[in-house]
Amino acid sequence: MKPIISAENVTFSYPADERAEARLTLDGVTLNIEPGTFTAILGRNGSGKSTLARHMNALLLPAGGTVYVAGMDTRSETMLLEIRRTVGMVFQNPDNQIVANVVEEDVAFAPENLGCAPEEIRRRVDEALKRVGMYEYREHAPHLLSGGQKQRIAIAGVLAMEPRCVVFDEPTAMLDPQGRKDVMNIIRALQEKGVTVILITHHMDEAAQADRVVVMKKGRIAMDGTPKALFSQTEALTELGLEVPDTIALLRKLQEAGFDLPSDALSIEECANAIAETIKAGN
Amino acid sequence: MLKDITLGQYFPGNTPVHRLDPRTKILLVILFIAALFTAKSYFSYGAVIVFLALSVAISKIHVKALFKGLKPLFIIILITGILNVLYTKGETVLLSFWVITITLEGIRTAVFMILRIMLLVSGTFLMTYTTSPIALTDGLERLLNPLKKIRVPVHELSMMMSIALRFIPTLIEETDKIMSAQKARGADFETGGLVKRAKALLPILVPLFVGAFRRADELATAMESRCYHGDKGRTRMKVLRMTGSDAFALILGVLLLAGVIVLAVFGL
């Protein structure tokens, strides 16, 4: 299948202020995202992951190289709206994404911009709100909701465009544990419905749920592979300034203590089963 | 302390007043104000008061809420009253000592002025209390639509207004947070003279402004991501429709103004 997002040798740098030396924020990134997949992008602060995300719906245009969204060059101004409705984007701070002071009016913002008919907007708004489980709150004022609920409204606002791909730029960074869980559940449900998901995150346990993990360092892709393959490379990850998920860290410690365990049992269940088996075998 | 700002407050409800088209309500308020400023007699003031009282009764808004809105204006109302009592020249002197002369005409004018201010504010508040800010800006945009022809950026202005209204509670929350943070580090906002207190506010305003700019930037990015490109080709989920009750309300409003004008012509 043709990739939905395809970045070819993309370079980009922000206008340098006088003190800082000009540095490429993106330094030759080539990345293809297949439709329907769930990709997590990891990296330390300043690794260029958010900048890369902003290239995926033409918020930023590459200085060198090209970005194609469903075959459309992001530099084409006539395709701009089509690109942005194909790739939706959810940001970190839910407060700064909500435009209107009634929940349903806010969710209606994108389809209104797209010029949908009123009945069609109504249908999309109701559907999007039901998908994030906030339908009962449709007439509430957003500022009275919790952070997690606001972020779900922001996601609904993007889903109302009926995008084929959604880029989440650290959507859980400002949320409490319950809010994080809710948002991750929505992300997984989206992928099951066939929406391509790209998740930029700092949380390893969130990245572990993806099909593919891309690690960025200094504007380049440093590692790329399945979570299992990636997270078992503890040393390489530590070198990139990232931690490994708790499960892998535990297995590592047990291995060092002399137990015979696999180093790629990523999910909590797998990890528990692996340990249980070893204990049984030991007896 | 900042929580009780009533600006742009809206009490949701489902009364005939709530259901009126926002355009009707804006036009009604204009008619109401025009009638208020034409009124010169007890009769015409009576008519205006009855009109407002009926609207309030139908809207089921508590009179208390309306009076709460009048509270900040208390001093202005008081000063207006006193000045009118003292400076209106009249023939029926009720009380006279030293330089102060109080006349019947003075009291009459003062009462009318006070009534006028109170009615003006209550009438406008009734509109904002019964209309969601979004509907209000929407109605304003439609009403001013003809001005687009002479290149008045009507859509942009109404968008700015509704975003400003949306961010008032967010910014108030942030102000409270910054104040608490400063207080925790020993800042003093409550004591000292006016100058000292104003100076104490500076460390609040700077972070608040910086934060507001950052928010504006992020909001603009989020809006762009959601395909915002001005009002070209933009549709609305809730289409404004004038109904029979709108026509009825507008006729009542016109009748009120006409009645007051007729009364004024006859010197009443």
How would you describe the overall organization of this protein?
The complex is a heterodimer of chains A (283) and B (268). Chain A is α/β, with parallel strands linked by helices and 283 residues long. Chain A has helices spanning 49-55, 80-86, 103-107, 109-113, 118-131, 147-159, 177-192, 204-207, 227-231, 234-239, 246-256, 268-282, and strands at residues 5-12, 26-33, 38-43, 64-69, 72-73, 87-90, 165-169, 196-200, 212-217, 220-225. Chain A is globular, with a radius of gyration of 20 Å. Chain B has 268 residues and is mainly α. Chain B contains 10 helices and 2 strands. Chain B has helices at residues 16-19, 22-38, 42-59, 63-70, 74-87, 104-130, 133-143, 154-184, 194-225, 244-265, and strands at 93-97, 100-103. Chain B has a two-stranded antiparallel ribbon. In chain B, a hairpin with a 2-residue loop joins strand 1 (93-97) and strand 2. Chain B is flat. Chain B starts with 15 loop residues before the first helix and ends with a helix.
